[in-house]
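Could you please consider the sequence and fold appended to this message?
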Amino acid sequence: MGDTDSPVKTCATCGNTDPDPSGVTVSLKICAKCKTTFYCSRDCQKADWKQHKKSADNAYESADAAGPGSPSTFETDGDSLRRLGERTWLHGYSEKMTYQLLIDAYRLRMDDQYVWTGDVDEDSIYSGECDGQAGFKRFLKKAERRAGLLPSWWTPEKSEACQEMGRTGGDDG
């Protein structure tokens, strides 16, 4: 099956398609909130916003609840790469999502360190510890020393909340 089977994207307001009927590529942009609705221009997005706002908010909350790695969580329009380039990777997410991203980054780092180099932190699960809390706390301190890496709302209290989420897995009880 070739490129003819790729999905046609349609502007939610005016109906422009990408590609258009003659095969010309139209640069449609995806809604930054819901990640499912396309627009061919800012004017089309603004014209549809009153009607689209509620469903976009619901989709955003569902993606946030689904957690990192779910298909609708990460931007599909290159915003993730822009954030990496600007070193603002953790900015713009909810507190819960930011905590989960930090927890996952630490877990992946520890796993990679063990798998690729055979090294282990003395206080990690790979060295036989029952949990990696001391190492995670050290990881967060290192992130805090990197100017601009963490969102502007980050405080010592948020660090504690993030560590708690790492201990409990985000359970409220």
Notes: Residues 1-5, 71-77 have pLDDT under 50 and may be disordered. Residues 53 and 143 are 34 Å apart (CA to CA).
